[in-house]
Design a protein that fits this description.
The protein has 242 residues and is an alpha+beta fold. It contains four helices and 13 strands. The chain has helices at residues 2-17, 21-31, 35-40, 105-113, and strands at residues 43-52, 55-64, 69-75, 78-85, 90-93, 100-102, 131-140, 143-157, 160-171, 177-183, 193-204, 207-215, 218-227. The longest helix has 16 residues, at 2-17.
Length: 242
Amino acid sequence: LKNLFVALTLLAVAPMTAQTADEILNNYLENTGGEAAWNALEGVKMIGSVSSQGMDIPIEMHQMKDGKQLFKINLQGQEMTMMSFDGETMWTTNMMTMLPEKSDTETTQNMKINNQDFPSPFLNYKEKGYTVEYLGKETKEGTETFKLKLTKKPVMVDGKEEPTVSFYYFETENYVPILVEETMNSGPAKGQMSVSTFSDYQEVDGFYFSFSMSQGGQPIIVKEIILNPEVDAALFAFPEEK
């Protein structure tokens, strides 16, 4: 009878303690602003700095609900667009000539394929054609986390289809991501793991954002976040020759 009681107790407790991917994501969205509020968000502008080679370089990032994106830096008074996408054309500033340069067709097409991640790839992920799998708990950065595998739509690299897979680690207390691992599928670092970290979550108009990040070992500090900024569409467009 004692063993039966223990077994029944474990059965009763198990559903309460077991986690599924959707439960983790529901908690994440609720704790950081609420699903309805995230769905209503039209855009985000981030102002901050990145540390590189002993310098603090001012950065500005825009991400809009319609897919438009912009990431620019100010290097010793010279403003440069590291990446811009207006929904059709993706471009950057050529660091050698300092002139705007359109990305190649394949890179632009790949941008269009997985350009649904605002404000989070996990928001309405099934409608985007993504899949999420819960892989259990794992300790990262000394913190217990839930590990989720996110598979997005495959991209083309040198004419061949490559998977787009990343691993997100959500800390178990507040259900926010603190680390992301992604296998690079193109470029000189192809096949290597890219690691991004997120910390110092702060509240902005009812939403919670990470104000301290690192990507590829480069620290990024966010100084200000503006929600639903008024932005001229021309900001993202490729500057045509006058």
